[in-house]
Amino acid sequence: MMVSRRKPIQYNEFDVNDVIRRLIAVKTYQKSIDVSEHELKMICNLSRSIFMSQPMLLELEAPLKIAGDIHGQYSDLLRLFDLCGFPPESNYLFLGDYVDRGPKSIETIALLLCYKIKYPKNFFILRGNHEVANLNRIYGFYDECKRRCSVKIWKCFQDVFNCLPVAALIEHKIFCCHGGLSPSLRSLEQIKRITRPVDVQETGMSTALFFL
């Protein structure tokens, strides 16, 4: 199944509400994604700029919903929103692992990034170990992008993943990350000082935060 072949649009014509509407309408495995490759590139570029404008350690206020691995199970993501409220009814923090394994990784990450674009101060996603090229190259996301879109789209998503924050602190008390704590981590200031983009190697303090 391929992405939609829509006429290319400019950034000032990009309608995130329309893209969200089309993504939410894709609720069955029989439907192909109704978003063009050009729109996916715009989603990546716009969301990347937002991530780069926000800190590596997010400092957030309650209340917000916290969600774990999605792994391309797009129907589960939609059920979660049905249960807990579609943004902006609820604020969200996702802890990583949006792609690989499941059948609809593109829809999953595209919808999450669209909500980040629409609600940059109320919708947050962290980096998981599957938001790393050397993993999602193997576990399904690369093959899905190649089959349904192109390798260029896979590379665009990697550029976004390399800019995702790695941790969040809620109400100065609750520390959230995908993986664990590195023995070299002595203070939260170390996380704040991590510079992006981060092209991950499987060692180091920042990597421990999103590798299991």
TrEMBL record:
Catalytic activity, as annotated: O-phospho-L-threonyl-[protein] + H2O = L-threonyl-[protein] + phosphate; O-phospho-L-seryl-[protein] + H2O = L-seryl-[protein] + phosphate
Keywords associated with the record: Hydrolase, Manganese, Metal-binding, Protein phosphatase
GO cellular component: cytoplasm; nucleus
EC number: 3.1.3.16
InterPro entries with a match to the protein in the record: Calcineurin-like_PHP (IPR004843), Metallo-depent_PP-like (IPR029052), PP1_catalytic_subunit (IPR050341), Ser/Thr-sp_prot-phosphatase (IPR006186), STPPase_N (IPR031675)
Pfam family, one: STPPase_N
GO terms for MF: metal ion binding; protein serine/threonine phosphatase activity
Name of the featured protein: Serine/threonine-protein phosphatase
Organism in which the protein naturally occurs: Ascaris lumbricoides
